[in-house]
Amino acid sequence: MKYVTCAFAVVAFVAGTFSFAPRAMAEPKIQTVWSVDVDQRLPNSPLALSQPAMVQHQGETWLVLGGRDSWVHVYDLDSGREIRRFPLPAPSDSGALALPNGWVVLGDVQGHLYAVDPVEGKIVWQKELTAALTIPPLPLGDDFLIQTGDNELYRFSSNGEKRWSYTGSKNTLSLYFGAQALIVDDTIYAVFNNGDAVALKAYTGDLIWKRQTILSSATSALTDLKAPLAQPTFLSQLHLSGEKVNDVLMVPIFQGEVVVLSSMDGSQSFDVPLSLKSSPLVTGEYMFMADSFGFLHAYNLDKGNRVWSKKISSHALMGPQLFHDSLWLTDNQGTVFKVNMKGEIKDMKQLQGSIARLPVVTSQGLVIRTDRGVMALVK
Fold it and tell me: Is the per-residue pLDDT at 116 higher than 80?
């Protein structure tokens, strides 16, 4: 399998102007195409945090996800119409992945992994894991990769055969979500919730190197916990202060730093004092990063300098993601922002509940899940 990577330059933070983004509203406003209550939540129900996979069937695009109501739900992307639902043995907060054969894999809160057939409306197979699966599975050829909350990494075939597993060090205190792994050619790069970054051989799961990215994780409160929540980014080339470094990983640590490691041996090149919940976005000549203090930063890739930093929200941001030449961001208070390439907010929309997952970008818009059980398509 060939994986496409992008090269860009990164420099340490330099003096720049922080400003509040102007609220110019010349472009079309954000529209809610449809909104559904997936989980049918009752008062005081647990938060609903599952995420859909997209499946193509007879010219239609379906959204398939598990619910906190212990059902698998199948929706039509265009209309939001529920096509069918079928039961799971337990509630699901899992990310989901569509396999090449049309099945979808997802997990439940009791530590079970399922392959489901959304066309037939049934569970095809299930496996028992050591902990709940909340991080979205990752495609790996015809197989897939999953990472559980207790730092176990597995490669499974589409038929449920375990190819290999890797056991990472345990962490006594961790956030509910974690960082999705990254696959570059025949190497897997994963960052566990205790801060260990590892490189593994994709075929065998053998360890190539391991590096600790969090200098101190000693805390008694989740609000102070440093944790990797965003997928690492591979950079084939990086420039810093006139020096050239090749083949590195950019590892964002929420409530910590962005750590840059060599992809070859895990040695650390430098770190940037920036707290991120999501990966940087590279588009054209620019790299964009949205931080947990509500700022959106833009860097020029050719020159390596920071072009601007704009205050988008008073809350932690996720994104940005690119849709129809605009940058889309969300915050943990349920707000969706549409921003142009200059950092100007063109519109914003409030959804019910907090947004804890990155939206799923589709041809029709962004599919957004909130912790109140809502799933909405906006554009």
Answer: yes
Alpha helices for the chain (secondary structure H): none
Going from N- to C-terminal start, the domains of the chain cover 1-45+282-379
CATH number belonging to domain 1-45+282-379: 2.40.128.630
Q: Tell me how crowded residue 45 is: count the other CB atoms within 10 A of its CB.
A: 14
Contact between 377 and 363 (Cβ < 8 Å): no
pLDDT in tens, 179-215: 999 999 999 999 998 899 999 999 999 999 999 998 7
Q: What is the pTM of this model?
A: 0.87
pLDDT at 218: 53
What is the number of residues in the chain?
379
Q: Which of 254, 354, 291 is nearest to 49 (CA)?
A: 354
What whole-number distance in Å separates Cα of residue 311 and Cα of residue 21? 6
Using CA atoms, how far apart are residues 213 and 198, in angstroms rounded to an integer? 10
